[in-house]
Design a protein that fits this description.
This protein is 42% helix and 24% strand. The chain is of the alpha+beta class.
């Protein structure tokens, strides 16, 4: 093999070996690197190794040298630190919208960004098979397609389904395709949701991405003002659990201990008005839905609805319906 070809291969082999096999705790000395090159049929002198390391360093590779016994060269800075990759691995394996197979593939790619010894530490926390995962393999690609539609301001069409008690797909609207202009993607409660303008219904709706099927672009849909003026922060604060509901200005009376809860839910901009020594009131925009009532119920008597009257009465009706259902179950038992 010509010397120039060997020289090119030598630098690539050294780069790959240093990147994948070394780190601060696992340096490689000249002897180890010479043996690695010899396995590929390349014979070099010890002094040549130092020259090649300098060439890689000049090219931008962050290579450090530790002197003394047990020393050698190792790669320092990488695109991601090990602690950062552990966070990404946790996010991948805990995300329900990513299938087990895709999770394992993504984690394998993330593992290639560290040395082999560090990869073992990274993979010690992987328990993908024990997590609840979606079975819709297309969701990963649907997310990418929806991001593209949002960036290019194009519409999409898709079929939307739920599951029955036999775990069979049941298509909404009789299997007719939904025609939607995407406004934003939201990751909430371990699921991805699309917030978009439904051209058939004439308003903004929310859809679980893993329940979409046969997603495709639709360039015939006009771009609505709703998406142009869409405020994701306001939408997230208003809607509970990504469920649709009539939007209203809800006035709440809260115990002082609930200040943190209210600010976490509605943001620092919420205006808190003292109401005596132990309470305050706040008026917030809310999409009134059973999920909002569920959030309110979880806070107990510490938070109550003052107005509007229709929201207060709807909450009372919800509580009465739950109490009635519990009584029926008790009677049946």
């Amino acid at each position: 093999m010509p010397k120039s070809a060997n020289q090119k291969r030598k630098l690539i082999l050294l780069q790959n070996y240093l990147y994948r096999q070394t780190d601060e705790e696992h340096p490689a000395n000249a002897r180890i690197l010479m043996e690695e090159l010899a396995r590929s049929g390349i014979t070099v002198e010890r002094k040549t190794i130092s020259s090649d390391i300098q060439t890689l360093t000049d090219a931008g590779m962050d290579i450090h040298c530790r002197r003394g016994q047990g020393g050698g060269w190792y790669v320092g800075a990488r695109p991601f630190e090990l602690a950062e990759l552990k966070l990404l691995v946790d996010a991948v394996q805990s995300s329900r919208f990513i299938t087990r197979r895709k999770s394992e593939a993504l984690i394998q790619k993330l593992s290639a960004l560290v040395s082999v010894p560090q990869e073992k530490a990274l993979r010690r926390q992987v328990h993908v098979s024990e997590r609840v995962k979606t079975v819709n393999e297309r969701v990963y690609y649907n997310i990418d397609a929806l991001h593209d539609a949002i960036a290019t301001k194009r519409g999409v069409h898709f079929r939307y389904f739920e599951y029955n008690v036999k775990k069979e797909r049941v298509y909404r609207r009789g299997g007719t395709r939904y025609t939607v202009t995407p406004c934003a993607l939201v990751w909430d409660n371990e699921n991805y949701y699309l917030v978009g303008y439904d051209h058939d219904k004439g308003d903004t709706r929310t859809y679980r991405v893993d329940k979409m099927e046969a997603l495709g672009p639709d360039e015939t849909i006009p771009y609505p003002d709703t998406c142009r003026d869409f405020d994701l922060t306001q939408h997230s604060q208003t809607h509970f659990g990504m469920f649709h509901g009539e939007e209203a200005q809800i006035r709440l009376r809260c115990e002082n201990a609930m200040v943190g809860v209210i600010l976490d839910r509605f943001g620092q901009e919420a205006m808190l008005i003292p109401d005596g020594e132990r309470h305050f009131t706040v008026t917030v925009p809310v999409a009134v839905s059973p999920q909002f009532f569920g959030w309110l119920f979880g806070l107990g008597p510490a938070v109550t609805i003052l107005s509007p009257e229709r929201a207060r009465l709807a909450y009372q009706a919800q509580l009465q319906a739950v109490a009635h259902a519990a009584e029926q179950v008790h009677s049946f038992a």
